Amino acid sequence: MSSDDDIFSRLSPRTRTLAGLVLAMSNFMVVLDLTIANVSVPHIAGNLGISPDQGTWIITSYAVAEAICVPLTGWLAQRFGVVKMFTFAMVGFGIFSLLCGMSMTLGMIVACRIGQGICGGPIMPMSQTLLMRIFPPEARPRAMGLWAMTTLLGPAMGPIIGGYISDNWSWHWIFFINLPIAVMCVFAAQALLRPVETDTAKVPIDKMGLFLLVFWIGCLQVMLDIGRDHDWFADPMIVILGVLAVIGFFAFIIWELTEEHPVVDLRVFRHIGFTSGVFSLALCFGAYFSGIVIIPQWLQMTQGYTATWAGILTAFTAMAALMTAPVAARFVGKVDPRLMISGAVFWLGLMTLWRAHWTSGIDFWTMAAPQFIQGFAMPFFMIPLTTLTLGSVLPSETASAAGLQNFVRTMAIAIATSLVLTGWSDSQRVSRNELASVLQPADAQAQLGGLGFSTEQIRQTISNIVEQEAIVTAVDHIFFISALILFGAAIIVWLAPRPTGPVDTSAAH
């Protein structure tokens, strides 16, 4: 492989800057697609004639496919070259985005979202790898700062762009807007990045490990997604899927621990710092993402909000995070990362507990306050967590650890989405029954009758009020559980020893 100096001399400063912007844009597009569909689920569900519960497959299918493909990034880059793989992934992402926008059935859009996730998964880590490759060491912090800004900006802009497009154009365009960006990135990569292509080698692929990974995750996710429609374990199919997921999971662990070239290097879990950090990451992202999934659906279903305004409210967190990200980055290396993470996660828990007291009569700015304030803590959790986890493994394991960290985070989002929607649905049913059992409708019926309401109108009005209150009670219940999980994660971080010495975070993605 060529020396670093030789690589840098192949690109002019202008070419390097343009290439950096293209790589940052490609990362932004992939991260954007993780949240852009969230506020559009009610629109898509209504248009395709499916329930909002089924519509969440559009979120989870993308996340799961991305999670499965991330561990393969290193092998694909070594086998075909990082620039070539980046270009292929962008082409595939553009094609599947087009097909998502053209989808007319739930089956087609879920299949195309899986294709999007498979192609999008490697783009994040490969864009980061290429940024590290084209910029000299002294310019890398600025380049990674630009990359990190797009990672934070994506989740902020996703709900706003998705909401605006769904309200004013059509939900199909949330996928079509990827096309011009994908085309630009493909041509720019070919024009600017070909001189920095990596050497290739015929590296063995762990086919059985990959099969077991897809098998157990597939069984688990299908079980979680259709379980609530099939009365869970009362349905033999759900029982079979659950048993297959457990068997596949244990077979995967045994195989990966004994395989010479594992698709996922599970051996890094022997480091307590890495294990506790990743476990905290999974709990935090799962609990944090529960709000991103529930809030837009609740606001649009019962509170009368448009997708645009639901998106703006959801995005307040990421807007605040953008403001404190540079401050958090300065503290890394000077303050114990465990203290930063624990404090930030405890802060997120307090904000989630605040949201657990929302009512159906709440106004926009009262909801926006905890959304915005919790955002200040996000960088103080995300940035030092990378330092903690990657500082706990051997230098030779950094790439594997970073890939595994991203895999766990993405899987936590997919699994949490399914669990949260199931819990929300169950809690609505329980709350509805409890409200109905203590309701004293005589007074309300007399008052509504006095206003000229018919018997049928009175019954429907009372039913609507009970439904609205049951839904908001269920929302509060989910936030309360999420807050408890966050408080637990703030404690788990302290199981990790404090990292010593400098940490190479360039492999993190």
UniProtKB/TrEMBL annotation:
Record key words, sorted: Cell membrane, Membrane, Transmembrane, Transmembrane helix, Transport
Keyword Transmembrane helix carried by entry: yes
Stored SUPFAM superfamilies: MFS general substrate transporter
One Pfam family named in its UniProt record: MFS_1
Keyword Transmembrane helix: yes
CDD domains: MFS_LmrB_MDR_like
Membrane-topology descriptor: Multi-pass membrane protein
Compartments reported by the entry: Cell membrane
Domain named Major facilitator superfamily (MFS) profile: residues: 19-500
Gene3D superfamilies: MFS general substrate transporter like domains (1.20.1250.20), Multidrug resistance protein D (1.20.1720.10)
Chief location category: membrane
Residues passing through the membrane, by range: 18-37, 57-76, 88-108, 114-132, 144-165, 171-193, 205-224, 236-257, 278-299, 305-327, 339-356, 376-394, 478-496
Family: Belongs to the major facilitator superfamily. EmrB family.
Protein name: MFS transporter
The organism of origin for this protein: Sphingomonas bisphenolicum
Lineage: Bacteria, Pseudomonadati, Pseudomonadota, Alphaproteobacteria, Sphingomonadales
Chain's gene name: emrB
